[in-house]
Amino acid sequence: MKSRKIKMIAAGSALMTSLAGLSAMSASAATTVPPLATIAQITQGAPMNMFNPNGLKWGALDEMPLAFPKNTADMSAFFPGLAKSWKITNNGRTVTVFLRPGAKWSNGQPITATDLVTTAACEFAAGWIWWDLGSVKAINQYEVQYTMAPGAKFNIFPFGVLTQTIVPTSQYAPLLPKNVWTLIKQSQYAGTDKAQLALQTKAQADLTLLGKKISAFAPKTDVSSGPFVISGVNPGEAVLVKNPDFYGAANIHVNEVVLRNYTSNQGIWNYMIGGQVNQATSSMPTSIKQRAAQTPGNVYYQVPSYYANSLMFNEHVYPYNVLKVRQALAYMINRNTVQAIGEPVSGSPVKYIDGMTNQQTSDTLTPAEQAQLTLYRYNPAKAAKLLESAGFKKVNGQWELPNGKPWTASLYVNSSYTDWVQGASVVANQMTQFGIKTSPVLIQPAQFATEQSQGKFALSFWTIALGPDVYWAFGRLYGGLDGYNMIGGKLSYTSSVSKGNWVNFPQTVAIPTYGSVQPGPLTNNLAEAMSPTVLHSDTAKLALVSNRYLPAITLWSGMQAGFVNTTNYTDFPLHSSPVMLAGVGFYPPVGFWMLQGYIRPKS
Amino acid sequence: MNYLKFLAKKLLGGLAMVYVVVTFTFFLIRLMPGNPVLARLTSLLQSGVPYQAAKQQVAAMYGFMPHGPLIVQYFDYLGQLLHLNLGLSIAYAGVSVTHILMSAAPWTIFMVLLGLFFSFILGVAAGVVAAVWRNSIIGQSSTFLATLLHGIPQFMLALAFLYLFTTEWRLFPFGAPYDAAIHPGFSPAFVGSVAYHAILPILAYAISGYGGWTLAMKSSVISVLGDEYILAAELRGLTRGIRIRYVARNAFLPLFTSLTLSLGFMFGGAIVIETIFDYPGLGYLLNNSIGAQDYPVMQGAFLIITAAVIVSNILADLLYSLIDPRIRRA
Fold it and tell me: Which domain holds residue A17?
C-alpha cells in the first residue's frame, strides 16, 4: 500500500517536473532569439489570401504594393515598392509601371508583368477596381501600361494603379478561366445594343462567381513578395521569418516577426503594459498611457491621423432638418470637454467645423478662407437664442418643440468604439443639462452600420473627414450616404432612405461669395477635376457649406497613439517625419519601417 | 429487449429535441437586428468605394444578399443539414462552418475537460473534508474557501488572472493556444507550449468551478452521514476510512448528473474564459460570431452544444442505472 502511494507521488512529481521543464523549454525557445512582436488581427481558419476579407496577409511584411502612398494631401507622392519607377502620361489617364528587375517571390520565381496582369484580372473579378481601370497591357517582362476606362474621369487613377498589391501568377492564374479578359471587356460594355447587354449580364454573373472563388481561395503556402514570409500561424499569432529572396533583404535587420492577435483595445493595452509587443497603437485612456509608460523599454509616440469623430444628423428627421437647431447644438456642445473625455490621450478638439480635420483645413484653405468659417465657440446663451428664434420654448428647464411637445433625443453609438461611447455620454449629458433630455444608445457594430444606413438614427456618432484626399473627406458627407452615386459612369441622385440616403442634405444651398452651390456634384468633381485651381476652389466651397449648414458637427480629430518597446530592438523612426512614423498608413507599420532600413536588434 | 426499447425511446426523444432547438435557434438568430452583409456593404461605401464596386465586391465575397423569404431559407438550411452540410461562414467569407468549428473544438475540449477534471476532483475531495470534519479548522476553512470562490464571478477571476499573470508579472502568455514558431505535432516542444499557454485558462476554469463542487459534495455528504446505515457501520466498528468511502460513494450519486451535464455543456466552451484569454475555442468563436452576426457559424455552434447536451443527458440516464443498483432494480 505504502509503495503504491510512493509510486503515485513519484509519478505525480515526474509529471509536474516534465511540464515545468517543457514550459521552460518553450519559454526559453521564445527568449533565445526574441522575434520582433507587434499586433494584427488574425482570423481563425482564414486563408493566406489578400482577396479574403480576413485573409492572413500583411502589407509590407508578406505582401507588397507597387508603391507606398505617402499619405499626405499630395496624392501623387509615393515611396517605391515593387515598382522601381512609373510614368504618368495622357493627362493622368495612362500609368506605365516599371518593375524592379531581379525582384522575386519567396518561391524563387521572378516578379514580372504577368503577375501584374493576373492581379488586375483577379481585382476585376473580386470587385476591387474602384479606380476606373479600362485596360492593362504588358509591354515587356518588366513594364506594364494601365489605361483609364474610356469616358471615365478620376484624378487619383494613378493612386489606384500604384497602390495595388500584387499576387503571384503561380498561385492565382489557375483560378482564372482562359476567357477572363473577354468577360471583363464584356462586363464593361456601356452601349445600348441588346445582344451586347445580354452578354454583359452573363459576363457580370460569371465574374461574380469567379470573384467568390478567388475570395475563398486558400493557398497551401505563403508566397510572399515582401521582406517576410509566414512560417507558422495559429488562431492567436503568426510567425513570419525573413524572406531571403526579397529584393531588399540586405536592408532588413530583423530575422523573425511575431504578430499577436487582438480583438479589443483591452487586449492591445495588455500587450503594451506587459511589454509583449515592440509596437502597437490604440485609442487609450490616460491611466493606460501612464501605466504602459512605466513598462521598461516602452516609449510613447503619436502621429497625426486623418479622421474626426462627429455628431451626425439625419435630416429626414425633424427637428434636425432645421438649420437653427443644428447650429444651436454646435454652440451648446463644449467640444473641449467632449474630447477630454472621449479621446483624452490622442485627440484634439476640432477648431473649424467644416467637414475636415484641423490638419486638412490648414493644408487646403488659405487664411482668408479660414477666416470665413464660423468658429461655433461654446456659447449656450447663443444656442438658446437660436432655438427661441426657431419657435422652441424652454419650460421648467426643458426645451419644447414649437408644437408644445417635449424635445427628447437618443444618441446612437457603435458599442465597440470606446472613444465614441465616452464622447457620446458627454454630448448626451451636455444636451440634457441644456434642457434636451438625451440618452446615449449603444448598438452592436453590424447592427449599427445596417440601421444607420437605413436612416433609423436621427442623431448618431460617425467618423468623417477621412483623409488625406479631400474627395474622401467630403465623400463621407455628400457622397453615397447622401444619395449621390456613380451609376453607369454618370452621377445619379436619390433622396430615398431605402436606397441608402440617410443624410438627406439639401441638394442646393447658398453660401457667401460663391452663391448657389450643389455639394453632391461638387464632391464628385473633387474626384474628377484635374486642375489644382478648380480643386482648391471646390474644397473651399465645400468647407464653407459644411460650416454654414452643418450636416455634421465634428468634435475631435484623432491622432495615432502608441508605444514602441526598445528592450530588444532599437532604431525605431521615432524622430523621423510623421509620414514615416505613421508607416504611410500601413498597419502594422513595422514592415514599412524595416523596408526603410529602420529597426535593428540590440546587440 | 426492454433496455433496447428504453434506449430507442431516449434517442428518438433526443432527435426530436434537436429538431426543436435547431428550428428555434434558426428563427431566433434571424430576429436579431442588423444584417452582416449589408454592414459590409456599408463599411465599403464608408471607406469611399463607389456603390457599384462595393456591391460587386460584396457579391463576390458572400455570393448572396441574405434577403430571401425566411421560410425558404429555413427549408434550405434543413435540407443542407440532412446532408451534414453546415454551410459557409459569412464573417470568414468562403470558409466552411464545419472546418471552423472543427478547428476550434479541440482547444475547448482540451481546456474545459482538464479544467472540469481538476475542479471536480479537488472540489469533491474538499467537499468530503468539509463535511466530515465540519467542526474542525480544516473543515471550516475548506467551506470558507469554497464559499468565497463560488461567490467570485468567473469573469472577475479570469480578468484578475489575466492582469496579474500576463501583464503585471509576465509568467504566462495569452492570446494564442501555442507558440506559432513551433511546428504542431507530438513533440515535447509543442506539447510543452500547448500546456504552457493553457495553464491560465484551465486554472481559471478549475478554480471558478471548484467552490460549487465542494459545496454540493459537502451538502450531499452531510445528508448521507445522517443515514442509518452509516450509524450501523459505526456501531459495527468499521474503521473511519471505510465509513468515509461508503459515504463518499453514496454522496457522489447526486453529483453524477451535474457532472455528465457539465460534460455536455463543455462544447459550448467557456465563453467568458475563452473570450477574456483570447483562447480560440468554441466559446470564443461563438462570441465572435454573434458580434459579427455570422448566422451559419452561430447555428453550427448551437447545434453542437444542443446535440452534446442531449447526448450527455441520455448518457446520464443510462449510466446512472449502472452506478446505482437501486435504479437498475427499479
Answer: 1-32
